Amino acid sequence: MQEITGINHIGIRVSNLERAREFYEQLGFVFIVGPIGPEPVAIMEHPSGVNINFILNANSGSTENILMDIPAKHPGYTHFALNVSNIKSVEKTLIKLGIPVTEGPIKLTDGGVMLFIRDPDNNVIEFHQNA
């Protein structure tokens, strides 16, 4: 479809808005509005233009990511990837913030590098530096 021009936002189900907001603020996202709407939803945006909609209806007792942490492989989105200009700098910042790297850095055959973290609800975030 030629009309698609980009991604408008990423929707992430979370159990606690304040906890999610504090975490994503550490990554440079800015709170815009919320909760709003019948779902309800809260919105944060990064200066790079990446927009996240937090869907505020996750069960608070859940500790597993059903798409990533159980043997059965259910269909669905497993993670989102953020392009970065310097993966080593990202890794140093994550360590300084006390955010554990759950996988990586992994060097790709084309020279790119990626690493993964999880937010407080175990949603997976990839940082990706192109070759």
UniProtKB/TrEMBL annotation:
CDD domains: VOC. Residues 6-130 form the VOC domain. GO terms for molecular function: lactoylglutathione lyase activity; metal ion binding; methylmalonyl-CoA epimerase activity. Keywords: Metal-binding. The keyword Electron transport does not apply. The keyword Metal-binding applies. One of its GO terms (biological process) is L-methylmalonyl-CoA metabolic process. Pfam families: Glyoxalase. This is Glyoxalase.
